[in-house]
Every structure is written in structure tokens, then in C-alpha cells.
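call fold(seq) -> C-alpha cells
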Amino acid sequence: MSAKKIVEHKKRINIPALISILMFLLVPPLLLIPWYRLFVLRSNTVSTLLIHIIGVAVIGLVTLVIAVVALIISRKREGEYKGTWMAWVGMAIGVIELGIGLFFIYDYLRFLNR
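ret:
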């Protein structure tokens, strides 16, 4: 009698989920770059703040999209990927970044229309 061999495949890490959880590391360099030295801006304060705020909102949106893609991939291939929790954490980080960015954009636009 021969013994049956059960071959277990190693679960692969969900790379988009890992990327989505690490995207928040792009925010500090965005805030530290002296944009007024790189480009000719009309105002050194308002334009720089807008670049920071819009940049945080865009990073949040991209993080959110990558996290949703990671969740779709892990649901489509059930049991093949590990690290689905990273996609959920990345989605939470993306929602927070997008919310903060959109709040300040809305506040700035409301201030302009007074």
C-alpha cells in the first residue's frame, strides 16, 4: 500500500494589499518637499498648502483603489493568498487620508466663495 501524499501549496502574500498598507509612507515626503523651490507658484503659502492637501487626497484615493483590488483578488482566489487583513487596514488608511484631503479641499473652496 502506498501512502497518499498531501501536497500543501504555500500561500502567497497579497502584494496589492501590502502596497496599500505601505502607501501612507508617501505622505511625509509629500509634506516635506519644498514645492515653492521646484515650481514657480503664484503664492508660496496657499499654493503649497493646496499641493499638500490635494496630494494627500490623491494618495488616499489610490490607496483605496489598490486595497479594493487586493480584496477582489483575494476573494476571487479563496485560500490562495494570505494577508487579506492588510487590504482592510489599507482601505481604512485610504478612507482616512481621502476624508482628510476632501475635508480641507471642501473647506478651502467654501472659504473662496464667501
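Strands lie at 12-13, 81-82.
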